[in-house]
Amino acid sequence: MSFRIGFGIDFHQLTEGRPLWIGGVKVPAGKGALGHSDADVLLHAICDALLGAAALGDIGTHFPDTSEEFRDIDSKILLQQTIRLVGEAGYTVENIDSTVCLEEPRIKPFVGQMQEVIAGILSIGENAVSIKATTTEKMGFVGRGEGIAACATALITSRNR
Ligand SMILES: [Zn+2]
């Protein structure tokens, strides 16, 4: 059995007039994330962590933001495609850990739903999907409400390597 770890990080601007998708869940908020897709910062960080663990490049390689195919796409589809690539490379996911950096709103009430969505796509238990949240104590672009960031790590295993 071989174990591999991957790391992902993502950022999006926050702007009025956009929905705020985090972890596959629409979070009620005054501002939403700007991006080519639905701009789900957490799902993007998880995609990059999974791709990184399998050394399969990054989200921009597989789902370029210059492609019309991916305009306003539901990032749950990107995560589905990512886990398919990781599976084809011979790996299964053990667990995900993640942190969302956001000044407001508080996402804690939605974390259970996010875990359910992500665990469902990855076919792992909800207790294998950790989602934490932090503010940046009013500092920097996150603190000023200009943007949102997320980091994720993923552990994947293979029996064949
Ligand atoms: Zn992104």
What does this structure look like?
The protein is an alpha+beta fold and 161 residues long. 29% of the residues lie in helices and 31% in strands. The protein contains 5 helices and 7 strands, in the order ββββαααβαβαβ. Strands 4-1-7-5-6 form a 5-stranded mixed β-sheet. Strands 2-3 form a two-stranded antiparallel ribbon. Helix 4 links the parallel strand 5 and strand 6. Helix 3 runs parallel beside helix 4. The longest helix has 14 residues. The protein is globular. It starts with a strand and ends with a strand. The mean pLDDT is 96. Zinc ion (ZN) binds next to strand 1 and helix 1.
Strand order of the largest sheet: 4-1-7-5-6
Q: Which stretches are low in confidence, meaning pLDDT under 50 for 5 or more residues running?
A: none
Report the span from N to C terminus. 7 Å
Gyration radius (Cα, Å) is: 15 Å
| Heterogens | zinc ion
Structural descriptors:
5 helices; alpha+beta; two-stranded antiparallel ribbon; five-stranded mixed sheet
Structure summary:
The protein is of the alpha+beta class and 161 residues long. The chain contains five helices and seven strands, in the order ββββαααβαβαβ.
Please outline the helices and strands.
Blueprint lengths: L1 E14 L4 E3 L2 E3 L4 E2 L7 H13 L5 H4 L12 H14 L3 E10 L9 H12 L6 E6 L5 H4 L3 E12 L3
Parallel strand pairs: 5-6
Antiparallel strand pairs: 1-4, 1-7, 2-3, 5-7
The structure holds zinc ion.
